[in-house]
């Protein structure tokens, strides 16, 4: 963890990035376009990730990850809203 708390009180660690990468795979997201960015950010320490420039890069990566389409041929449906979950 960084030595000081970021102004918004939120920081993202290497473990968080690894978890997000795994989650994208499990959800069947086509994350190929983000692999290089994940790889670059995962080379940094948690303290380096907490620096403003890297925080911006990490936040942009996570925002982009939320918009990824499903991989072609992914055999499962992963609803994310309550109504769709209840229908299953």
Overall mean pLDDT score? 88
Structural class given helices, strands, pairing?
Answer: mainly alpha
What's the number of extended β-strand segments? 0
Helix content: 40-55%
Major sheet = none
Shape: globular
Poorly predicted tracts of residues: none
Give an account of the 3D structure:
- This protein has five helices and no strands.
- The N and C termini lie far apart (40 Å).
- The protein is globular, with a radius of gyration of 15 Å.
- Helices cover 52% and strands 0% of the residues.
- The mean pLDDT is 88.
- With 88 residues, the protein is mainly alpha-helical.
Please outline the helices and strands:
Blueprint: H1 14-26, H2 35-42, H3 46-49, H4 52-66, H5 82-87
Summarize the structure.
This protein has 88 residues and is mainly α. It is built from five helices and no strands.
Q: Can you tag this structure with a few keywords?
A:
single chain, 88 residues, mainly alpha, 5 helices, 52% helix, globular
């Amino acid at each position: 963890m960084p030595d000081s708390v970021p102004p918004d009180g939120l920081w993202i660690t290497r473990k968080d990035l690894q978890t997000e990468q795994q989650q994208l795979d499990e959800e069947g997201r086509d994350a190929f376009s983000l692999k290089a960015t994940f790889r670059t950010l995962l080379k940094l320490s948690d303290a380096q990730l907490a620096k403003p420039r890297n925080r911006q890069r990490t936040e942009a990566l996570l925002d982009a990850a939320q918009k990824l389409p499903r991989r072609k041929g992914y055999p499962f449906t992963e609803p994310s809203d309550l109504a769709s979950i209840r229908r299953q």
